[in-house]
Amino acid sequence: MLKITNVSAQIAGITVLRNIDAEFTAGQLLAVVGRNGAGKTTLLRAIMGLLPLTAGSISLAGTDLSKVAAHRRTEFGIGYAPEDRVMFPTFTVEDNLRLPCDVLGLAKQETDRRLARVLEAVPQLEAMLPRSGAALSGGQGKIAALGRALMAGDKLVLLDEPFQGLAPVLASQYAESLRRLHQIAPELCIVVTESNRSLLRDLPDATFTLERGELVATN
What we know:
six-stranded mixed sheet, 5 helices, globular
């Protein structure tokens, strides 16, 4: 599904990712764990085209993403929730969720269908829909960012440190939403990064460890 081949990347001349080879399979929830600064965010940014590769290639379902501009990668069914979970403050939560579909030029019927699927997976979002993006707590913002990523990502969803800073109740709700996604969208590949592996509990189908720029399957 997502194939990473011999990928290296640098930030400010310092190599952060070193010759990474990995394949992420459709229908799995995969964890990438590692200490802060290990390169987890860099890996997701490289997949999204927000950071140039110094070597290697990344392909999704046979499409070489290196030939696809960063702003067009969502067209290939990739959703991304960065750690900073930015919401447009003057938009409602519903507007924030619909925005990726509007940018993609999807028909209203398709956008409505995707929103219904998101609300099925993340039911706590329904009460937030009319609220301003500026009115959300940090934890609620992460829940909304998950929903927004799902609006765009019907093949691959990348979630950067989603459990960090979440109150226990919200963390439990977030985990339950990911479990429901397995049932609602069994073809979806979900990649979650975390510094604290224990926060993931029993969620991942497989776990990779990123250390010193190298990615290794650990189970």
